[in-house]
Design the sequence.
């Protein structure tokens, strides 16, 4: 029940997003009809294209049309790729999600232990290493890290596969169940494709992990420090509880709340905003799709993308709240 | 974390349908086959071509709305036209299409009269599904072009092909076009990518009352009879072609399969080429091309793009560019050689430092201007601006790799004579709308004529009809008279005089400052041969060979 109520609360914001994205895309400079008519088009050709796209009608009429299509689940057709926006988002979301999740697993696997150890021994060499890694991770732009990794591991060492997207040229995608190639190839029992997909994932996810490591490690360190300095830890220690139990159960569990929040933020950010990593590795993800559409003033994909991201944020926030409840019984959804 | 996978599941049905519609190689049936297919695929690598580009096709229908340039490549290789162009060697010994000579494609022969042309079609030619190509298919395709509206209709109209009644089926393998008027462009216009011959029987099955020309279907499928057939298309990622072994309109291509991947990052494309994992890459920035050419590991072919110039435009209707001396001063202040060296890495043919005498009807040809700051300063003082002025230089961010350094170098050079230039970077989607307003005082741009006729360039750029590309709002009755005469001139000597006259006026009045003729650069592995330059600037797989 509280979950349902939370979803209902999100409805107005989703409707707001629909109106705002519609208006914002219309307010973009540039004229899609002129763009798609090509360089040598005449005025009449441009007018015909504008009419075909329905952009010669009034804004309210266009909006009513947009909402009517939306209610049927029709997000329109992209002019840049010529495909229905819905099917493109459906094809690209798993690609982005698979990459982002792999990157997050990598970065959580490094950031959590690093942050914890750094917090346990503030000022120690480990703490300094943590500081250096996080500073470097944040300050290196992802396209640079990406190209550097390609240069080192693909071009020079030749150990990484060619950065050709989700699969190399001679592999066939696994049958579609979840859209995650790793999962789908396992379901199909096709280990060759699994290895191929994993190989393609390594460099881009490492690039993203290096970038997302920093906020996670820092927040872990900071909240661990705060937790370790608090009174209940002092009590626990005074009561003679083992060090492992004090750190892993009492301190860590309490320190995890801000980490989960940051994780959610980092996840949603990386899902849609990793244009540069996607470009470098030719990854067919959401971010580059949206940016390409934006550059071309291609309204339908931009609207579809923003809407999809808004829905995703709503769901993600809900999930984070649910995880909160699990971690901390004091948190309630209806509060 | 179960959230993400559940979203595509809800709409998975749509995905499946799309895969089915495209006639893709069964996405769902390869689960167990994949591991076993692999060795076979590896063997056929020697006959498989892997090409890279920055973007892929957005529409498989050349007559569709907004089909992009990569779309021409698909159309060029998968569909046949009635005619094609012959081949010649260019100055560097590379294959170059020859626009002076037609060759048969679907038509074995043709008979050109004053007001009609009759084509004899190959009797053995079939489409990819095995149905014979007949005159009815040609008529349906051409009717479609003049009826469907948009770019295709305009392309046909430009050659005086306007009404379905002009296209006549004489018998199954004889097709006639009746001309509305004598137009020099009619025949050349049958060789551009647009006039494809579509399998009308197949397409009609997918036509509806609302969509009689099956545009929705042809957009995502292929219904041609060209040398290659579509195997699989994943928009934005990859497109795969397979050779059509029953192709009769020319020698059977040596390449059996073409995989064309979209790799947006130029750095990645370069790495793939240097490692030898890809066979051909286009869309490489000048810096990469020049470095690759120096290293010599790859085969680089740079062909000057016909009838194309990168230039600066000054709006002659706006102050201070209404003053000829100001325009000349700017033309003497452009850092030409620096642009060639530091911005273009010499991947362009200089269009400056000419003799000043126009003796040949060749376009583009070098202007008489060179960088001469002293002379520029003198002209500027004479024009009444001894201490310079302020202006903005606008350019298209869509081509920022080239435009940005060119404009920055120019900004610096003009600054030395007191002209304070602000750079106005206009996003790609907005660029055309902005320069169409003709309110940009000073801008950098490139124009390439589709057809290699100088009068075509002058008509679009210098004619007083003030087309969108006449960014300088230049109007001169003497120029108009020469252009109009040249367009319909039948006497060669007179034609050449008229073209030379146009060039002379363009240089003397200098509303536009030519800088260079851009190259079409293609990087290939050393074992790739048979590359041919085409006016549409896309790859033709039919002549390529590997090994």
Sequence:
């Amino acid at each position: 029940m509280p979950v349902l109520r939370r979803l209902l609360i999100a409805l107005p914001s989703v409707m707001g997003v629909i109106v705002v994205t519609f208006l914002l895309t219309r307010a973009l400079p540039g004229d899609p009809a002129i763009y798609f008519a090509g360089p040598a088009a005449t005025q009449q050709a441009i007018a015909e294209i504008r009419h075909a796209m329905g952009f010669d009608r009034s804004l309210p009429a266009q909006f009513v049309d947009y909402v009517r299509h939306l209610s049927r689940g029709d997000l329109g057709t992209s002019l840049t790729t010529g495909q229905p926006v819905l099917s493109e988002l459906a094809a690209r979301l798993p690609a982005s999600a698979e990459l982002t999740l792999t990157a997050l697993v990598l970065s959580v696997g490094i950031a959590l232990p690093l942050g914890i150890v750094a917090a346990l021994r503030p000022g120690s060499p480990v703490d300094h290493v943590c500081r250096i890694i996080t500073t470097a991770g944040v300050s290196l732009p992802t396209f640079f890290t990406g190209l550097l990794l390609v240069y080192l591991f693909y071009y020079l060492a030749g150990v990484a596969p060619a950065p050709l997207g989700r699969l190399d040229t001679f592999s066939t995608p696994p049958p579609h169940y979840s859209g995650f190639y790793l999962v789908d190839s396992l379901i199909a029992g096709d280990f060759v494709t699994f290895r191929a997909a994993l190989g393609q994932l390594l460099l881009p996810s490492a690039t993203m992990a290096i970038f997302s490591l920093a906020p996670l490690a820092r927040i872990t360190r900071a909240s661990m420090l705060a937790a370790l300095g608090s009174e209940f830890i002092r009590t626990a220690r005074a009561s003679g509880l083992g060090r492992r139990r004090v750190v892993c159960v009492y301190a860590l569990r309490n320190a995890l709340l801000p980490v989960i929040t940051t994780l959610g933020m980092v996840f949603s950010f990386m899902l849609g905003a990793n244009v540069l990593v996607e470009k470098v590795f030719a990854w067919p993800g959401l971010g580059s799709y949206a940016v390409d559409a934006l550059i071309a003033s291609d309204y339908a994909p931009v609207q579809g993308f923003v809407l999809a991201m808004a829905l995703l944020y709503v769901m993600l926030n809900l999930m984070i709240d649910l995880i909160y409840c699990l971690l901390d019984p004091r948190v309630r959804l209806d509060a | 974390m179960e959230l993400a996978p559940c979203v595509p599941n809800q709409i998975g049905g749509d995905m499946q349908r799309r895969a089915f519609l495209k006639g893709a190689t069964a996405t769902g049936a390869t689960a167990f086959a994949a591991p076993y297919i692999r060795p076979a695929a590896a063997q056929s690598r020697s006959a498989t071509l892997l090409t890279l580009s920055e973007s892929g096709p957005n529409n498989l229908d050349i007559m569709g709305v907004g089909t992009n340039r990569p779309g021409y490549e698909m159309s060029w290789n998968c569909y046949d036209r009635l005619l094609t162009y012959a081949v010649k060697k260019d100055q560097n010994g590379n294959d170059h299409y020859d626009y002076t000579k037609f060759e048969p494609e679907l038509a074995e022969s043709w008979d050109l009269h004053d007001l009609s042309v009759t084509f004899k079609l190959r009797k053995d030619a079939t489409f990819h599904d095995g149905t014979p190509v007949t005159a009815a298919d040609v008529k349906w395709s051409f009717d479609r072009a003049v009826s469907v509206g948009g770019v295709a209709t305009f392309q046909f109209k430009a050659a005086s092909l306007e009404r379905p009644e002009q296209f006549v089926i004489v018998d199954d393998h004889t097709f006639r076009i009746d001309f509305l008027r004598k137009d020099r462009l009619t025949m050349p216009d049958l060789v551009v990518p647009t006039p494809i011959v579509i399998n009308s029987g197949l397409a009609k099955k997918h036509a509806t009352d609302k969509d009689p020309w099956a545009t929705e279907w042809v957009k995502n499928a292929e219904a041609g009879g060209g040398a290659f057939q579509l195997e699989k298309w994943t928009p934005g990622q990859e497109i795969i072609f397979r050779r059509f072994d029953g192709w009769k309109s020319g020698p059977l291509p040596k390449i059996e399969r073409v995989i064309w991947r979209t790799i947006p990052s130029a750095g990645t494309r370069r790495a793939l080429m240097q490692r030898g994992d890809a066979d051909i890459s286009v869309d490489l920035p000048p810096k990469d091309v020049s470095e690759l050419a120096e290293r010599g590991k790859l085969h680089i072919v740079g062909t000057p793009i016909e009838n194309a110039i990168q230039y600066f435009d000054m709006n002659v209707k706006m102050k201070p560019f209404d003053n000829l001396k100001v325009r000349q001063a700017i033309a003497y202040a452009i850092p030409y050689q620096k642009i060639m060296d530091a911005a273009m890495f010499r991947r362009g043919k200089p269009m400056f430092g000419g003799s000043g005498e126009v003796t040949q009807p060749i376009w583009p040809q070098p202007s008489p201007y060179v960088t001469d700051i002293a002379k520029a300063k003198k002209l500027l003082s004479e024009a009444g601006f001894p201490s310079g002025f302020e202006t903005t230089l606008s350019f298209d961010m869509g081509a920022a790799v080239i435009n940005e350094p060119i404009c920055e170098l120019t900004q610096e050079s003009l600054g030395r004579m007191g002209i304070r230039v602000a750079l106005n970077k206009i996003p790609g989607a907005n660029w055309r709308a902005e320069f169409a307003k003709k309110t940009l005082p000073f801008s950098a741009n490139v124009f390439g004529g589709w057809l290699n006729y100088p009068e075509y360039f002058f008509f679009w750029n210098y004619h007083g009809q003030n087309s969108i590309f006449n960014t300088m709002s230049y109007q001169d009755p003497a120029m108009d008279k020469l252009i109009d005469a040249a367009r319909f001139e039948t006497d060669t000597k007179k034609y050449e005089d008229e073209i030379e006259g146009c060039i002379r006026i363009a240089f003397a009045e200098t509303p536009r400052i030519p800088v260079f003729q851009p190259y079409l650069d293609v990087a290939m592995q050393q074992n790739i041969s048979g590359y041919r330059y085409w006016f549409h600037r896309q790859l033709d797989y039919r002549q390529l060979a590997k090994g």
Remarks:
- Residues 51-279+525-546 of chain B form a domain with the D-Maltodextrin-Binding Protein; domain 2 fold (CATH 3.40.190.10).
- Residues 492-509 of chain B form the longest helix (18 residues).
- Chain B touches chain A through 71 residues (CB under 8 Å).
